[in-house]
Please model this.
Amino acid sequence: MAIYRGTELEKDLSLECDVCIVGSGAGGAHVAARLAAAGKRVIVLEEGGYYTSDDFNMDEAEMFHHLYQEHANRATADLSISILQGRSVGGTTTVNWTTSFRTPKPVMDYWAGRFGVENLTYDALVPHWERVEERLNIREVPLDFMNRNNRVLWDGATKLGWEPHLLKRNVRDCASLGYCGMGCPLDAKQSMLVTMIPEAVDHGADVYANVRVQTIESEGSRISKVNGVAMHPDGNRTTSRTITVRSKVTVLSGGAINNPALLLRSKLGNRNGRVGKRTFLHPVIASAAIFDDPIEPFYGAPQSVASHYFQDRGPDKMGFFIEAAPIFPVFGGSASPGIGKDLQEIMDALYRMNATVAIGIDGFDDKDLDEGATVTLKDGGHPKIDYKWTPRLSEMLREGNKRVVEIQLAAGAAYTQSFHTRGVKIRSTSELSKLDSAPYEPNRVKCFTAHQMGGCIMGKDPKVSVVDSRLKHHEFDNLFIIDGSVFPTSLGVNPQLSIYGLSSWASQHVIAAV
Model:
């Protein structure tokens, strides 16, 4: 019936409830609201802090520190891929760029055919998506709402015949501030922070922020206890205060990286060694383009247009889709290539810069050459992410880089700048061959991810999957995993609406298990 901050706990807590949910993002918040509305006693544990619009001051350095995993420094073990992932009440929905897609039907058909996913079909999710879209005011962006940064993608892709399309966003009365990635100071973004979490609390749920769940325990085929520890106000350290929750059902909604890490720390649910396998990242390569006129990529809706023209490049190549990305001084400066004078030149041109990205659709290789990342544990129990950098990935990054540059040049860019350690400048399409000879290897070109999927995948066969088609763990009668970690592949679209629909659909199975 309230939201508590673990940093303020004065004593250890031992709690009981019907359903304990670990994580308050796109999966956990929706399950909490549905279960609480059904009259179940719900407790949500969230490692991140509880911040509201009053705290969102649009300061990169401060907001990245508070609102992202590892203060926006999370990365693969070899540092080749930077991982942007939210950590606060509302999870990544508090800091994402509001882009909303339903799961493509061919993706769900692939899951059914290859992994034996049953009953979870596109048609089964349609009523759940419709309800969520109405609740979160998900609507298509009008063309005249598009900022200059997105207009580059629209104009360039249109000229090339690459079928750009308008996006849908979960906003209400958006003022186009452009700072979605740092939390919305107007509560215009219809994130879980301002929608389903308050709804869950109104129906009687309790949310404990600043609580890191260290382990879960089992008795036979049932999860018996969830063990958490309160965080220090700096967000880095734990305190001596503990929270223990006993519940009839446990739901893990900590995401594709944290869910596997929790199961591995607990030494549970990994009988066939599948926990942490098939973790997909939608690996991203970016190109910066400098225009003669102002672009101001830090203002306006961060994303309003995309192109999926290259999503299917045949069975032997990784597909990709194309979107725009906002640029701010701190993140732009840390991501840009070069040092000294070269970096200064790029930052001086920030207001004239466009960033367009190619996003790899990993996980659709029937020869199992594209298995994404594996999550294991570092010393101390924190997640370690090893992404397999394959020739298939390198080819996608190279081709995606070239296609993005073509879009930017077609839209009138004076020149483009790649994100290699030694950035490649392109002034005309006749120079595209420079990108063919540039290196697409770990730590020789910047690579990012804002979408993490898999690691606890669903499927019929316990030998190759972690949860069944109802999202119940194969080994435990009262453990569900409900978020993007159950996806057997990446999606080829931004994942939040897919997770919303999935969590709404899966809630009925949790209710039945209580």
About this structure: The longest strand covers residues 238-252. The chain is about 25% helix and 25% strand. The radius of gyration is 22 Å.
